[in-house]
């Protein structure tokens, strides 16, 4: 877990891309920072908790390779 300090104009998807490398993690960040869930565009200086994410496992792989 890390903490990210927002920059004026950050949005959830931008924060996910900057911190975790993919917009697909946006919902995990929102879940950890539920008090800001209604925020669309962040002002500067908001501290967000960035959860640790494990490696993605493809559902296309057979079970013995997951």
Could you provide a short overview of the structure?
The chain is of the alpha+beta class and 66 residues long. 24% of the residues lie in helices and 12% in strands.
Keywords:
elongated; 2 strands; 24% helix; alpha+beta; two-stranded antiparallel ribbon; 66 residues; 2 helices
Instruction: Choose one word for the global shape.
Output: elongated
Strand content: 5-15%
| Mean pLDDT across all amino acids | 92
**Contiguous uncertain segments of 5+ residues:** none
Helical proportion, percent range: 10-25%
Describe the structure.
With 66 residues, the chain is of the alpha+beta class. 24% of the residues lie in helices and 12% in strands. It has helices at residues 12-20, 26-32, and strands at residues 2-5, 47-50.
Task: Outline the fold blueprint.
Elements: E1 2-5, H1 12-20, H2 26-32, E2 47-50
Antiparallel strand pairs: 1-2
Helix pairs in contact: 1-2
């Amino acid at each position: 877990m890390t903490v990210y300090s927002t920059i004026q104009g950050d949005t959830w998807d931008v924060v996910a891309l900057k911190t975790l490398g993919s917009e697909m993690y946006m919902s995990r960040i929102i879940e950890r920072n539920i008090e800001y869930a209604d925020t669309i565009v962040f002002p500067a200086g908001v501290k967000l908790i960035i959860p640790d994410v494990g490696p993605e496992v493809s559902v296309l792989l057979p079970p013995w390779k997951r």
